Fold:
Amino acid sequence: MSEVDYQKIGAEAVRICQDLIRIPSVNFGGGVGDELAAAKYVAEYLSANGLSPQLFESAPGRVSVIARITGSNRERAGLVLHGHLDTVPATAADWLHDPWSGEIIDGEIWGRGAVDMKDMDAMILAIVGHWYQTGFVPERDIVLAFFADEEAGGKFGVNWIVQNHPEVFQGCTEAISEVGGFSVTLKNGKRLYLVETSEKGMYWMELVAQGTAGHGSMINKENAVTTIAEAVARIGSYQWPVRITSTLRTFLSSVAKVLGKDFDEKKPESIVAELGSMARMIGATTQNTANPTMLEGGYKENVIPQSAKAVIDGRFLPGYEEEFLATISELVGPHISINPIIHDIALEQPFSGDLVEAMCAALKECDSEAIPVPYVMSGGTDNKGLAKLGIAGYGFSPLRLPPELDFMALFHGINERVPVSAIHFGVEALDRFLRKA
Structure:
C-alpha cells in the first residue's frame, strides 16, 4: 500500500465531526426528530467526492442518505458501512460546555453525538473523500448508509429502508457500524480492543393498569396507580439469573487469561469487576435486564385515576428471548396489559472469518500491543435492521482511548466528548481495515 497521509485524513475527520455536532439532529422519540440538515450536509460532501447519494425521507424531516462505491471485483459480495445521523436530546444547562458547539477543549471534541456517533460518520466521510482524491478503488462494493432514527429503534430509518428500498443493499452480505473496536486498558496495562460481534435484543413496552376511578379520600381496592406501582417495583427489583452466551464466554475467558486469572462461569462478576468503568455495560450482558423508565398516572391530587401507565426498557440476550418474555409476563401479573413499543432481535456473529481477521490486523498495525476480543453490547444498533436482509453486522468504530476515560458513560450522558487523538487513530485503523475487507 502506498503511503497514506493519515494526519490529513484525521484532521478532516475532526473538522467534519465538529460540523456535524453543530447541526442539531435530535431524536425525541415517538416519531419526533429531524435529520434533514445533517443528511444534506452528508449528501453534499459525498457528491463533492464523486458519489451519487440518494436521500430517503420516510416522514417529514426523517431523512437517511445512501450511496454506493463500486468495487473493482464484481465477484465479491458488498459491504455496508453505516452510521446514524440522529442523537438523543441534550440540556445545555447540565453540561460544562455547549452540547452543540463542537469545540475542542483540552484535546477533546465536545458535543452531543461526539461518540454516538458523529465521530464515526466523520471518519467514514473523511476516508471516502481521501479515496476519491487519490483515486483509490476498494475491491468490493461498499454501500455507505447514514440512517435516521437509530436512537428510537430505526422505524423511520434502517427498518423503513429495508422494507421499502431493500434494493440499495443488493449484493451485500456484511455490515460494519458503531460501538466496537475501541480500547479498554486493564489494571495491568494490557490494552484490549472490543469488537462488537453480538448485541442484546430490545423489548420496550408500555404497561397499562385499569382500575376504578374515585375520590382520593375513600378506600379503593382497585387503584390503578397502586397496581402499576407494584408491577414496576417487581420488575425493577427482580434479580435476573446469570446467562453466559458464547460471545460473553469468549470475552470473559480472554480477559481472565490476560489477567492471569481463572474464569468461573457461575461467578462472572469477579472478572467483570476487573474492567473498571466498562464493568457496568459488560455486567448488563451477563443477564437479561428490564428497567422502568417512565410512569404516568392521575391528573389531580384528590382523584384516583381509572388507569395508570409505565414504560419498561427490556433487553434480552441471544437465545434467551422466550425466557425474558415469560418472566416479564409473570412479574407483571394478570391485571396489567403489555403493549410492545419496540420488539427487535438479538444478534450474535462468530469472531472468525476474513472480515474479523481484517479488523484484528488493522488494530494490530495501528497498535502493536492491541489485543482484539469479541464482546456483547448491552444496547442495540442498526445492524438489527440489516439482519432482516441476511446481512451479518459487526461493530467496528475504532478508537484508542485514554485509560482514565469513562467511555460508556458518554453514551447518552452529559458532557459527551471524544479525544481528537482517538479520531486520528480511528481513521487509520478504519482505512486499513476497509482496504483489506
Observations:
- The CA atoms of residues 143 and 338 lie 38 Å apart.
- The chain has twelve helices and 21 strands.
- The chain has two domains: 6-188+346-436, 201-344.
